[in-house]
Design brief:
334 residues; alpha/beta; Aspartate Aminotransferase, domain 2; binds pyridoxal-5'-phosphate
């Protein structure tokens, strides 16, 4: 199956970094529990993120971090306020915690509805989650709108920067000015190691300590800690694939734009939306996703974005295969 549905980095680890990471893993004494504080990985991530170690904690992927955030605040907040469409796990994890989920639709051009969000935040103690850039729309929200959300009485403003390396904008600086702001990041996307399950949070030291107090002590396997440490220490080399993917994204968009009935949206991440004009293409977006799956190509269709498909930037040969399959589907309906 061709995986253009989970926004992974198709290049994975460079062979040299893979060998070095495996070497580190080989040295481990697996009979012992891992270090609870993951000190080396924390040091490497803090250096990478440009913060001090007490401003950073690590989780078993960023999904886990979102759950820890909600867990740490569930006695003080009643609702999770989210602009939608966005990453689906905010709703899923908030519901599991028994929190009320309030979804405020984005405007037509996928910007924040600041008035709607502020009203929802004012009505009850809230956590707000802002995905930055937003998955699946691919855009950053206006900085002034985010400032307006930070000026509300939200108890916590969690900014999910899973795709930070592709767009380069960050709210990390805001975390030292306002302890209610935390930034969540992951090694699953640009760093290309989704299987290691490493997410991290940057925040004010007091906030980090509060969230860290609900983390399970052995939440990170020793193998993941050791391998991820090597990956982050070699960030300069490993992140060379980001430029490759940014070039690939624009080539892929240009190729898909050449297919009648398809238009693409600009993106600040390693995925982008494709709008399907059913009349011209001859098939709706949901059916296209289903037909592509039959042909071994996985992309995403979301019920709350019925006319769109979300495509992860793949290798050049994957992009060509997707283009061929879409042309083929169109010929079928002609
Ligand atoms: C916005 C966003 N946040 C978090 C995640 C989950 O990342 P992780 O692999 O670190 O759990 C994803 C995965 O697709 C995502 O798109």
């Amino acid at each position: 199956m061709m995986r253009l549905h989970f926004n992974e980095n198709p290049y994975g680890l460079s062979p040299d970094i893979m060998s070095a990471a495996l070497e580190e893993a080989r040295e481990l004494d697996l009979q012992f529990y891992p270090d609870q504080e993951a000190p080396e990985l924390r040091r490497a991530l803090a250096e990478y993120a440009g913060v001090s170690e007490d401003q950073l904690m690590i989780s078993n992927g960023s999904d886990d971090m979102i759950q820890l955030l909600f867990l740490a605040h569930m006695h003080e907040v009643e609702r999770v306020v989210i602009p939608v469409p966005t990453f689906g796990m905010y709703r899923v994890l908030g519901e599991i915690m028994g929190l009320e989920i309030v979804e405020i639709p984005l405007t037509e051009d996928f910007e924040l509805d600041v008035a709607g969000l502020s009203r929802a935040i004012d009505q009850a103690p809230s956590v707000v989650v802002i995905c930055h850039p937003n998955n699946p729309t691919g855009n950053y929200f206006s900085a002034a709108d985010i400032d307006s959300i930070c000026a509300t009485d939200a108890r916590l403003i969690a900014v999910d920067e899973a795709y930070y390396e592709f767009g380069g904008c960050s709210m990390v600086d805001a975390t030292s000015r306002d302890p209610r702001v935390v930034v969540i990041r992951t090694l699953s996307k640009a760093f290309g190691v989704a299987a290691l399950r490493i997410g991290y949070l940057v925040g004010h030291p007091d906030k980090v300590a509060e969230i860290d107090s609900v983390r399970q002590p052995f939440n990170l396997s020793a193998v993941s800690q050791a391998m991820a440490c090597t990956v982050v220490q070699n960030a300069d080399i490993q992140l060379e694939t980001v430029d490759e993917l940014l070039r690939g994204r624009e080539m892929m968009r240009r190729d898909l734009e050449g297919i009648p009935g398809l238009t693409t949206l600009s993106s600040e991440a390693n995925f982008f939306l494709v709008r399907v004009d059913q009349g011209t293409f001859g098939m709706d977006a949901g059916r296209i996703a289903a037909e592509l799956k039959e042909r071994g190509i996985l992309i995403r269709h979301f019920p709350n974005l019925p006319e769109f498909l979300r495509v992860t930037v793949g290798l050049p040969e994957q992009s060509a295969a997707l283009q061929d399959a879409l042309n083929d589907l169109r010929r079928q309906v002609d």
